[in-house]
Specification:
Helix 1 runs antiparallel to helix 7 and helix 11 crosses helix 12. By secondary structure, the chain is α/β, with parallel strands linked by helices. It has a 7-stranded mixed beta sheet, covered by helices on one side. A two-stranded antiparallel ribbon has the order 1-2. A two-stranded antiparallel ribbon has the order 10-11. Helix content is 42%, strand content 10%. It is built from 17 helices and 11 strands. The radius of gyration is 31 Å and the shape is elongated.
Length: 481
Amino acid sequence: MRDDAPYTDTDAPPGDNVTPLRPPALHNPDAERALLGALLLEPGRAPQLHDHLEPHDFDDPRYEQIWDAIYTVLLRDGVQPDYLMVTNHLRETGQLTKLGRLLPELIDACPTPANAEHYAAQVRNAARLRQADQALNRGLQLVRTATPDTVDSSMAETLQTLDDLSARVGPRHNATIRVPTIDDILAGDDEDAYDWVIPGLIEHQERVILTAEEGAGKSTLLRQIGITAAAGIHPFTGEAIDPVRVLHVDVENSLRQSRRRYRPLRIQAGANLDPDLLRVEIRMAGIDLTSAEDREWLLRTTAAVQPDLLLIGPIYKLANGDPTEETSAKPVAMILDQVREATDCGLILEAHVAKAPSGQKKRPHEPYGWSGWLRWPEIGIYLDKDGKLTHWRGAREERDWPHKIERGGHWPWTAALTGPDQLWIAIQKARMDHGKPMSQRDLVEATGIPKTTIARLVGPGGKYAHGWPGYNNSNKVTDKR
């Protein structure tokens, strides 16, 4: 049976009673003949039609062979595939006896070469329907032959069959591909406006990995970020923000543990929280995002919830296998990227850190496991047991994550000082320690703070402009105390 031939009951194992789907639209021999005739009449149209079809899109294998001959002449020999050149190719390959008599018939079957693209679309659509017919009959067979013990595997294979079908012949696959120009990318009224999930912390489609040692409070911080964002409260400043939809996929804690830990946060949020905006999925046994079944579950769950912010982890419980191996970890990163693109969500991923190297006391700040996690997020933050937040993966753009958080206050974690406040303190200290007027370059070298951040803080219109009235954006010494 050809790969693209429809699946019928003759292909099913003995005893199966599968009714094949065979609508007339599966076959369009007139369009196949008209298309090939158009190319023989006007071979100059061949280059523009090459990407419209695959050879197996022809239902009649003889027409598939003629299509192959036309494009072999065009692409291999580099000449126009006119009637004579195609005839010569068929003669060289020993196919002229079988196919040569068809060429005049194909020319006669073409009403007008001007409609060649239209004929190609009809051939392609019939091929898509034949492939759908095959996939649906295969799915029907899987469903009808499933047993109580094979329901999950049968459903997973059926859904994978349909996903493969969508990727091959869905509407987007059949559409003309157009890659945006640079002006298309830069067009629009939003300029470079940020698309915040939580202002100053994370944008839509941005990735954050939060790491910590066991017991440092990262899971508590993750829940606090989730419930405050859903309640319209900035998790560190307490300022009012636009509420967002949050999905928390907890693959470590039990339902009982989650209830105990979420209950005081829910009480604190009070009437500010619309419960519909915070969804919590408990999967204590973990999930395996290397499996088609669990990938499909996550895609369907996020598609149903449509979160602005996805909280998930820890990493080691998102896949079976060795977390240090790329084969176990990279599929997790890929499906999470697919989720954030499909739902336009920001993502915070929880992760543990490795044990301290032999002979050392300090543990690494980066996530334990696959080295790709070091490069994957836009922001990587380590939470120390004393509440200090250290960036092990520097923000690719400026963000206002606090440098330190403290236990207690209205929420389990409270910012000791806002990020800008702490930076201003560092700037003041550097100026005092320097002992003489500072240039911008001096200040960057002394504090490690990017010059764009310094300009935002103390330049014209900055929060602390009043504290350094002589500052400007040049490297000249303008420090006036």
